[in-house]
Write a structure and sequence with these properties.
This protein has one domain (8-260): NAD(P)-binding Rossmann-like Domain (Rossmann fold, 3-Layer(aba) Sandwich), CATH 3.40.50.720. It has helices spanning 17-28, 52-62, 77-91, 114-133, 136-142, 153-158, 163-183, 200-203, 210-222, 225-236, 274-285, 295-298; strands at residues 8-11, 32-36, 67-70, 96-99, 145-150, 188-196, 246-250, 253-256. 45% of the residues lie in helices and 13% in strands. It is an alpha/beta fold. It contains twelve helices and eight strands. α1 runs parallel beside α2 and α4 (114-133) packs parallel to α7. An eight-stranded mixed beta sheet has the order 3-2-1-4-5-6-7-8, with helices on both faces.
Length: 305
């Protein structure tokens, strides 16, 4: 298939999981691919000797595609500039960035230290800034560019033990929205995917009982990385028009998330005193409060697939 023929796509975190599937399928669809992966652990420490980015490139080339590997970190803006230069020099251009690169350092907030917070924010938020800042002028000049960022229900809905990750993922949604608004007149699009996929980030989940173990096994078989990757690549296709949106992919289900808008308001002639707010204002708004349910409460059904 040649849906992405003539396009050059940079995939961060492309050595494993969703990023790997994005790189492989992009090549199958005719794109040239820069596969970036530092090769670090899920917590961001160390690097693998196996060079996962190069392994993906080897697989693409063996299948007749075109790809190059990059092993630098998205947290360093100079390194991201080199990625962009590499794509343009070795692959002939750059048209889209898919940015699933990320780490986890889960910890309940009252036990979270600064390093746990800073490392996750640095990879997700600073990394997202870096890939946009290093490509935006190129995209503006060619009047063509596309970002696919990755958020999470940990931010959109909330998940205990992931304050750092959730904060970063909500920040990415805000960044993408403004990139879409500012880039509209220059043919630049930006969207966010909140993926449901069985990757190494879920491998460490320990089931509390047999029922949870069975549910996790069903999730493992029905929420695959390739399902998310195909949607990410559809957003990169020249015919796609979506921009500024937040999507979810859960198995074979594609969903569009709402974005914050006022849902109820109250007013008072002459203004509000604190006691009035307590006695009347908050009570009038309370029926529309969003509950504190975790993603499992919002999605209580098994994945479709």
């Amino acid at each position: 298939m040649t849906i992405l023929s003539g396009r050059v796509i940079m995939v961060t975190g492309g050595g494993r999981g969703i990023g790997r599937e994005c790189a492989l399928i992009a090549a199958q669809l005719g794109a040239k691919v820069l596969v970036n992966d530092l090769g670090g652990s899920i917590s961001g420490d160390g690097a693998e000797k196996s060079n996962p980015a190069q392994l993906v490139v080897d697989e693409i080339v063996a299948a007749g595609g075109t790809a190059v590997a990059n092993n630098e970190s998205v947290t360093e803006i100079a390194a991201v500039r080199r990625m962009v230069e590499q794509a343009r020099d070795e692959l002939g251009g750059l048209h889209a960035v898919i940015n699933p690169a990320g780490i986890l350092r889960d910890k309940i907030f009252h036990k979270m230290d600064e390093a746990d917070w800073d490392s996750v924010i640095h990879v997700h938020m600073r990394g997202s800034f870096n890939v946009a800042r290093c490509t935006i002028e190129h995209f503006r000049e060619q009047r063509d560019g596309n970002y696919v960022y990755f958020s999470s229900t940990s931010g959109l809905i909330g998940n205990a033990g992931q304050a750092n990750y959730g904060a970063a993922k909500m920040g990415i949604a805000g960044l993408s929205r403004i990139l879409a608004m500012e880039g509209q007149s220059r043919g630049i699009r930006s969207n966010v995917i909140a993926p449901f996929a069985w990757t190494r980030m879920l491998d460490g989940v320990k089931p509390a009982d047999d029922e949870m173990a069975a549910r996790l096994e069903r999730m493992k078989n029905t929420m695959r990385s390739d399902q998310v990757a195909r949607f990410a690549l559809a957003l990169c296709a020249p015919g796609a028009e979506a921009s500024g949106q937040i999507f979810g992919v859960r198995g074979d289900e594609i969903m569009l998330f709402s974005q914050p808008r006022p849902i109820r308001s109250v007013s008072r002639v002459g203004g509000w005193e604190v006691k009035d707010i307590l006695d009347h204002g908050l009570g009038a708004l309370a029926p529309s409060y969003v509950d504190l349910g975790a993603p499992s409460a919002v999605f209580p059904y098994d994945p479709i697939g």
